[in-house]
Design brief:
- The complex is a heterodimer of chains A (about 110) and B (about 120).
- Chain A is an all-beta fold and about 110 residues long.
- Helices cover about 0% and strands about 50% of the residues of chain A.
- In chain A, strands 2, 5, 6, 10, 11 and 12 form a six-stranded mixed β-sheet that branches. A four-stranded antiparallel β-sheet of chain A has the order 3-9-8-7, with no helix packed on it.
- In chain A, strand 8 and strand 9 form a beta hairpin.
- Chain B contains no helices and eleven strands.
- In chain B, the strands form two sheets. In chain B, strands 2, 4, 5, 6, 9, 10 and 11 form a seven-stranded mixed β-sheet that branches. Chain B has a four-stranded antiparallel β-sheet with strand order 1-3-8-7, with no helix packed on it.
- In chain B, about 35% of the residues are buried.
- Classes of the chains: A mainly beta (about 110), B mainly beta (about 120).
- Chains A and B meet through strand 6, strand 10 and strand 11 of A and strand 5, strand 9 and strand 10 of B.
Protein backbone atom coordinates (compact mmCIF):
# COMPACT_ATOMS: atom_id res chain seq x y z
CA UNK A 1 0.00 0.00 0.00
CA UNK A 2 1.18 3.50 -0.75
CA UNK A 3 1.59 5.98 2.06
CA UNK A 4 3.42 9.07 3.20
CA UNK A 5 4.50 10.02 6.68
CA UNK A 6 5.20 13.42 8.13
CA UNK A 7 7.10 12.77 11.35
CA UNK A 8 6.68 16.26 12.83
CA UNK A 9 3.34 17.63 14.00
CA UNK A 10 4.82 21.12 14.19
CA UNK A 11 7.92 22.90 12.99
CA UNK A 12 8.98 26.21 14.51
CA UNK A 13 11.43 28.50 12.77
CA UNK A 14 12.45 32.12 13.04
CA UNK A 15 11.73 34.46 10.17
CA UNK A 16 14.67 34.62 7.78
CA UNK A 17 15.96 31.19 8.74
CA UNK A 18 15.81 28.19 6.43
CA UNK A 19 12.98 25.76 6.96
CA UNK A 20 12.51 22.06 6.32
CA UNK A 21 9.30 20.10 6.58
CA UNK A 22 9.92 16.38 6.41
CA UNK A 23 8.11 13.72 4.43
CA UNK A 24 8.90 10.08 3.79
CA UNK A 25 7.05 7.82 1.43
CA UNK A 26 6.34 4.17 0.89
CA UNK A 27 5.29 3.14 -2.61
CA UNK A 28 5.63 0.25 -4.97
CA UNK A 29 6.96 1.47 -8.28
CA UNK A 30 7.76 5.06 -9.17
CA UNK A 31 6.54 7.64 -6.68
CA UNK A 32 4.55 10.68 -7.73
CA UNK A 33 4.88 13.10 -4.84
CA UNK A 34 3.18 16.39 -4.02
CA UNK A 35 3.19 19.15 -1.45
CA UNK A 36 0.14 21.21 -0.59
CA UNK A 37 -0.35 24.10 1.81
CA UNK A 38 -3.49 24.96 3.74
CA UNK A 39 -4.03 28.34 5.33
CA UNK A 40 -6.63 28.62 8.12
CA UNK A 41 -10.18 28.01 6.91
CA UNK A 42 -9.02 27.63 3.33
CA UNK A 43 -8.67 24.85 0.80
CA UNK A 44 -5.48 23.04 -0.16
CA UNK A 45 -3.17 24.86 -2.50
CA UNK A 46 -0.74 22.99 -4.71
CA UNK A 47 2.91 23.92 -4.08
CA UNK A 48 4.99 21.53 -6.12
CA UNK A 49 5.33 18.00 -7.38
CA UNK A 50 7.90 15.38 -8.28
CA UNK A 51 7.04 13.17 -11.22
CA UNK A 52 10.40 12.45 -12.82
CA UNK A 53 13.63 14.24 -13.68
CA UNK A 54 15.64 16.50 -11.40
CA UNK A 55 15.60 15.53 -7.77
CA UNK A 56 15.29 19.18 -6.72
CA UNK A 57 11.87 20.49 -7.56
CA UNK A 58 11.00 24.18 -7.38
CA UNK A 59 7.51 25.35 -6.65
CA UNK A 60 5.35 28.27 -5.62
CA UNK A 61 6.24 30.97 -3.07
CA UNK A 62 9.95 30.12 -3.11
CA UNK A 63 9.48 26.58 -1.86
CA UNK A 64 11.44 23.62 -3.17
CA UNK A 65 11.59 19.95 -2.37
CA UNK A 66 14.29 17.35 -2.70
CA UNK A 67 13.43 13.86 -3.83
CA UNK A 68 15.77 11.28 -2.32
CA UNK A 69 15.16 7.78 -3.55
CA UNK A 70 17.63 6.03 -1.26
CA UNK A 71 16.09 7.64 1.82
CA UNK A 72 12.53 7.51 0.40
CA UNK A 73 12.11 11.14 1.36
CA UNK A 74 10.64 14.27 -0.19
CA UNK A 75 11.39 17.08 2.24
CA UNK A 76 9.98 20.55 1.65
CA UNK A 77 12.45 23.40 2.00
CA UNK A 78 12.72 27.15 1.79
CA UNK A 79 15.96 29.10 2.20
CA UNK A 80 14.42 32.00 4.12
CA UNK A 81 11.13 31.65 5.97
CA UNK A 82 8.47 34.36 6.11
CA UNK A 83 5.87 34.86 8.81
CA UNK A 84 3.28 34.49 6.06
CA UNK A 85 4.52 30.93 5.42
CA UNK A 86 2.89 29.88 8.67
CA UNK A 87 0.31 27.28 7.67
CA UNK A 88 -0.47 23.56 7.58
CA UNK A 89 1.59 21.61 5.05
CA UNK A 90 0.64 18.28 3.57
CA UNK A 91 2.79 15.82 1.70
CA UNK A 92 0.93 13.46 -0.63
CA UNK A 93 1.56 10.54 -2.93
CA UNK A 94 -0.51 9.66 -5.95
CA UNK A 95 -1.88 6.16 -5.82
CA UNK A 96 -1.98 3.95 -8.85
CA UNK A 97 -5.73 4.63 -9.03
CA UNK A 98 -5.17 8.38 -9.30
CA UNK A 99 -6.21 9.62 -5.89
CA UNK A 100 -3.87 11.56 -3.62
CA UNK A 101 -2.99 9.97 -0.30
CA UNK A 102 -2.08 12.63 2.24
CA UNK A 103 0.21 12.61 5.22
CA UNK A 104 -1.09 13.77 8.56
CA UNK A 105 0.12 17.31 8.03
CA UNK A 106 2.76 19.50 9.66
CA UNK A 107 2.00 22.89 11.15
CA UNK A 108 4.69 25.40 10.28
CA UNK A 109 5.02 28.32 12.67
CA UNK A 110 7.34 31.12 11.60
CA UNK A 111 8.04 33.64 14.33
CA UNK A 112 9.14 37.22 13.70
CA UNK B 1 -7.11 31.46 -13.18
CA UNK B 2 -9.65 28.63 -13.27
CA UNK B 3 -10.74 27.36 -9.91
CA UNK B 4 -12.93 24.77 -8.26
CA UNK B 5 -15.93 26.35 -6.56
CA UNK B 6 -17.97 24.83 -3.75
CA UNK B 7 -21.31 25.70 -2.22
CA UNK B 8 -22.41 26.19 0.46
CA UNK B 9 -19.38 27.40 2.37
CA UNK B 10 -21.03 26.38 5.62
CA UNK B 11 -24.10 24.29 6.33
CA UNK B 12 -25.65 23.47 9.66
CA UNK B 13 -28.09 20.58 9.75
CA UNK B 14 -29.89 18.36 12.19
CA UNK B 15 -28.87 14.73 12.61
CA UNK B 16 -30.79 12.51 10.23
CA UNK B 17 -31.31 15.19 7.61
CA UNK B 18 -30.13 14.95 4.03
CA UNK B 19 -27.38 17.26 2.84
CA UNK B 20 -26.17 18.02 -0.66
CA UNK B 21 -22.82 19.65 -1.17
CA UNK B 22 -22.16 21.14 -4.58
CA UNK B 23 -19.00 21.60 -6.58
CA UNK B 24 -18.17 23.11 -9.94
CA UNK B 25 -14.88 21.58 -11.11
CA UNK B 26 -12.52 23.27 -13.52
CA UNK B 27 -14.18 23.08 -16.90
CA UNK B 28 -11.77 20.90 -18.88
CA UNK B 29 -11.04 18.51 -16.03
CA UNK B 30 -12.12 14.92 -16.28
CA UNK B 31 -11.50 13.46 -12.82
CA UNK B 32 -13.38 14.52 -9.74
CA UNK B 33 -12.85 13.78 -6.08
CA UNK B 34 -14.34 14.36 -2.68
CA UNK B 35 -12.20 14.50 0.45
CA UNK B 36 -13.04 15.39 4.00
CA UNK B 37 -11.06 16.89 6.84
CA UNK B 38 -12.13 16.71 10.46
CA UNK B 39 -11.03 19.55 12.74
CA UNK B 40 -8.13 20.67 10.56
CA UNK B 41 -6.51 17.29 10.73
CA UNK B 42 -5.72 14.67 8.14
CA UNK B 43 -7.30 14.97 4.71
CA UNK B 44 -9.20 11.75 3.99
CA UNK B 45 -10.19 10.44 0.57
CA UNK B 46 -13.86 9.68 0.09
CA UNK B 47 -14.50 8.99 -3.59
CA UNK B 48 -13.22 9.53 -7.10
CA UNK B 49 -15.40 9.89 -10.18
CA UNK B 50 -14.64 9.59 -13.85
CA UNK B 51 -16.71 9.16 -16.97
CA UNK B 52 -19.94 9.42 -14.99
CA UNK B 53 -19.19 6.67 -12.59
CA UNK B 54 -17.36 6.06 -9.34
CA UNK B 55 -13.76 5.02 -9.92
CA UNK B 56 -12.88 4.31 -6.33
CA UNK B 57 -14.35 4.83 -2.90
CA UNK B 58 -13.01 4.55 0.60
CA UNK B 59 -14.42 2.74 3.61
CA UNK B 60 -15.85 6.05 4.80
CA UNK B 61 -18.01 6.29 1.68
CA UNK B 62 -20.77 3.97 2.82
CA UNK B 63 -24.36 3.65 1.63
CA UNK B 64 -25.25 6.98 3.20
CA UNK B 65 -23.08 8.77 0.66
CA UNK B 66 -23.64 9.23 -3.05
CA UNK B 67 -22.16 11.36 -5.80
CA UNK B 68 -23.65 12.62 -9.00
CA UNK B 69 -22.77 14.74 -11.96
CA UNK B 70 -26.26 15.92 -12.88
CA UNK B 71 -25.15 18.14 -15.73
CA UNK B 72 -21.99 19.16 -17.54
CA UNK B 73 -20.70 21.37 -14.78
CA UNK B 74 -21.84 20.34 -11.31
CA UNK B 75 -20.54 17.51 -9.14
CA UNK B 76 -22.48 16.80 -5.98
CA UNK B 77 -21.99 14.85 -2.77
CA UNK B 78 -25.13 13.74 -0.99
CA UNK B 79 -25.32 12.46 2.55
CA UNK B 80 -28.72 10.84 3.00
CA UNK B 81 -29.05 10.79 6.77
CA UNK B 82 -26.37 12.79 8.50
CA UNK B 83 -24.71 11.67 11.70
CA UNK B 84 -22.84 13.74 14.26
CA UNK B 85 -19.56 12.26 13.05
CA UNK B 86 -20.19 13.57 9.54
CA UNK B 87 -19.32 17.03 10.83
CA UNK B 88 -16.23 17.99 8.84
CA UNK B 89 -14.88 20.16 6.07
CA UNK B 90 -15.63 18.57 2.71
CA UNK B 91 -13.34 19.36 -0.19
CA UNK B 92 -14.04 18.83 -3.84
CA UNK B 93 -11.10 18.47 -6.23
CA UNK B 94 -10.61 17.95 -9.91
CA UNK B 95 -7.70 17.02 -12.13
CA UNK B 96 -7.03 17.18 -15.80
CA UNK B 97 -5.30 13.89 -16.32
CA UNK B 98 -4.51 10.86 -14.29
CA UNK B 99 -0.79 10.68 -14.95
CA UNK B 100 2.14 12.70 -16.10
CA UNK B 101 2.79 14.10 -19.52
CA UNK B 102 1.63 17.48 -20.69
CA UNK B 103 -0.79 17.40 -17.76
CA UNK B 104 0.76 16.65 -14.48
CA UNK B 105 -2.12 15.16 -12.62
CA UNK B 106 -2.15 17.41 -9.59
CA UNK B 107 -5.51 17.90 -7.97
CA UNK B 108 -7.03 21.36 -7.69
CA UNK B 109 -9.09 21.84 -4.56
CA UNK B 110 -12.03 24.05 -3.77
CA UNK B 111 -12.26 26.14 -0.62
CA UNK B 112 -14.41 23.54 1.07
CA UNK B 113 -17.89 23.22 2.56
CA UNK B 114 -18.04 23.09 6.32
CA UNK B 115 -20.76 20.74 7.50
CA UNK B 116 -21.95 20.94 11.08
CA UNK B 117 -24.36 18.25 12.23
CA UNK B 118 -26.26 18.99 15.44
Amino acid sequence: AQSVAQPEDQVNVAEGNPLTVKCTYSVSGNPYLFWYVQYPNRGLQFLLKYITGDNLVKGSYGFEAEFNKSQTSFHLKKPSALVSDSALYFCAVKSNTGKLIFGQGTTLQVKP
Amino acid sequence: EPEVTQTPSHQVTQMGQEVILRCVPISNHLYFYWYRQILGQKVEFLVSFYNNEISEKSEIFDDQFSVERPDGSNFTLKIRSTKLEDSAMYFCASSEALWEGANTGELFFGEGSRLTVL
